[in-house]
Design a protein that fits this description.
CATH architecture of the largest domain: Orthogonal Bundle
CATH topology of the largest domain: 434 Repressor (Amino-terminal Domain)
Largest sheet: none
Order of helices and strands: HHHHHHHH
Shape: elongated
Low-confidence stretches: none
Number of strands: 0
Number of domains: 2
Mean pLDDT: 84
Length: 134
């Protein structure tokens, strides 16, 4: 019986995506890690909600485990808390971020350095690596 239900669900999801619909996967957020990362930054729940651009009650439900965020919300949480989606979802033990966002209007010098590196400028890459080793 369960197998047949899964087949029916699978066909329905395939039909929905073929029609241009969006299927939202439920991703399990580790509420303990969410709280740990917030505390590591030294910010309140209210400040975390503000930085994540969500209501305080919504954030409180995420941290309490009463609500399941979308992958997009978890990515925002990871960006704000300086960690990775993999860490917040329990898929990695490494709390280091796997993504940095450098905006030209916020830090033009660093943006220029990254831009030169991305353009594969050999001289710039050599200088950046030499500086990073110091």
């Amino acid at each position: 019986m369960v197998y047949n239900d899964l087949i029916i669900l699978s066909k329905a999801l395939k039909r929905l995506t073929n029609l241009g619909g969006t299927v939202m996967a439920i991703v399990n957020l580790d509420k303990e890690r969410l709280a740990e990362c917030r505390k590591k930054l030294g910010i309140t729940k209210q400040e975390a909600a503000k930085r994540m651009q969500m209501s305080q009650p919504a954030y409180l439900r995420y941290e309490a485990g009463d609500r399941h965020p979308s992958i997009h919300v978890i990515q925002t949480m990871a960006d704000v808390l300086g960690t990775s989606v993999a860490y917040l979802t329990g898929k990695s033990k490494n709390s280091s971020p796997d993504l940095y966002i450098v905006r030209s209007d916020e830090d033009p010098e660093l943006f220029h350095v990254v831009d030169q590196y991305k353009k594969n400028n050999p001289d710039a890459i050599k200088r950046i690596k030499a500086y990073a080793k110091k």
